[in-house]
Specification:
The two termini are about 20 Å apart. Helix content is about 35%, strand content about 15%. The longest helix has 18 residues. Helix 2 runs antiparallel to helix 8 and helix 9 packs parallel to helix 12. The chain folds into 2 domains: about 260 residues, Aspartate Aminotransferase, domain 2; about 120 residues, Aspartate Aminotransferase, domain 1, CATH 3.90.1150. By secondary structure, the protein is of the alpha/beta class.
């Protein structure tokens, strides 16, 4: 078997998949002389809301700010207050937790399932207290983490449901119900006959357009999607220094804006997102069908609609040895993530927690190459090398 050089994610080749369209869109913005709060941002917000399936989309600076602004807006609207608890997956990227703590809210860590690697809905209800006001689900690795049970818990306990959709653009839910919000009801779920996209399942969702995402910009970018007009208006104002009319400030806001260049690039890539996700699903199918090493565990396979494979994670007790083995064969892998949030120095107040499933995932997880520019031959080589790995 001839050695190949396979990057974990080659952003240059990903960009070139739609390079001519992207360059044309950028040139139009440059020539327009209008770089913020312009037509490109308005058009992308309209197109992304339609794609996700919500009434409103507000472009913001990045994914962390999207989540933080959701929580801040709920505080301004009187639906959250300092000291309220937000249940969040314990194995998430730290931004999910940062958004909670920077709003003086309390994260309550829920264990994931070892077979799915996303929040364990059977463990959530035991964490709900009289101070719980929201559940933040994270569609980690591109896998839909919403379940009917989570929706029912939000109804039963009158909780807000917030989605961190940074890693799952284009993913769908096949649960039998999802939220349909009315402006006067913060926790109303009804049956839905189709398969709604992540980002439309909760009361609000935060999105990241970091370059490596399935829908990635040429720099930082983010958005909030929601059906709640009052929330949307508050978020747009808070991200514009607290202003909804020039030089008139209702809130002590911040500067969090999606610029015209990024919006133009995102609108191009949005048109191709489903086909790019389909390529990821083809690569993932090859991994699932061909990796057969007893020392390497793959997460349970979901229908393609429910997983857009932002990341393809595997578990291995000798994770570091596997990573070195693959590196020697020209295969670049990454770890998502080596240290759990509750074990980070910045959250030492939670270091006493025992979260064995989370800690095992962070100890064993390895991410295989995954992108829409990867070829089946690349995936074949990766699978063959993994099958050769021995302890």
């Amino acid at each position: 078997m001839k050695q190949r050089d396979i990057s974990f994610l080659d952003l240059k080749s990903v960009t070139e998949l739609h390079g001519d369209e992207i360059r044309s869109a950028i040139n139009k913005v440059v020539d327009s002389g209008w770089y913020l709060h312009g037509e490109c941002t308005r058009q992308f917000e309209e197109d992304f809301a339609k794609y996700i399936g919500t009434k409103y989309c507000i472009g913001v600076g990045n994914g962390l700010e999207a989540l933080s602004l959701i929580l801040r807006a709920y505080k301004e609207l009187g639906k959250l207050k300092d000291g309220d608890e937000v249940i969040v997956p314990a194995n998430t990227f730290i931004a999910s937790v940062l958004a909670i703590t920077e709003n003086n809210l309390i994260p309550v860590f829920a264990e994931p399932r070892l077979d799915t690697l996303v929040i364990d809905d059977s463990a959530v209800e035991a964490l709900i207290t009289e101070r719980t006001r929201a559940i933040m689900i994270v569609h980690l690795y591109g896998r839909c983490s919403y379940t009917t049970r989570i929706g029912e818990l939000c109804n039963k306990h009158n909780l807000l449901l917030i989605e961190d959709n940074a890693q799952a653009h284009g993913c769908r839910s096949n649960s039998s119900s999802h939220r349909s919000i009315s402006e006067n009801d913060s926790s109303f779920f009804i049956p839905h006959s189709s398969f709604p996209r992540t980002g439309s399942l909760g009361h609000a969702a935060g999105h990241s357009f970091y370059p490596g995402k399935n829908l990635g910009a040429m720099g930082d970018g983010g958005a909030v999607t929601t059906d709640d007009l009052e929330l949307a208006e508050a978020i747009r104002s808070l991200g514009n220094y607290g202003s909804s009319a020039k030089y008139v400030y209702k809130y002590k806001g911040e500067n969090s804006r999606l610029d015209e260049l990024q919006a133009a690039v995102l609108d191009v890539k949005l048109r191709h997102l489903d086909e790019d996700n389909a390529r990821r699903q083809q690569i993932a199918a090859h991994y699932y069908d061909n990796i057969s090493n007893p020392h390497v565990t793959l997460p349970v396979r979901l229908p393609d609609a429910n997983n857009v494979y932002h990341i393809f994670p595997v578990l291995c007790e000798e994770r570091d040895k596997l990573q070195s083995f693959l590196k020697e064969r020209g295969i670049q892998t990454l770890i998502h993530y080596p240290v759990a949030p509750h074990q980070q120095e910045c959250y030492k107040e939670y270091s006493h927690l025992s979260l064995p499933v989370t800690e095992r995932i962070h100890r064993e997880e390895l991410s295989l190459p995954m992108s829409p520019s990867l070829t089946i031959d690349d995936a074949k080589y990766v699978a063959e090398c993994i099958n050769e790995f021995m302890l």
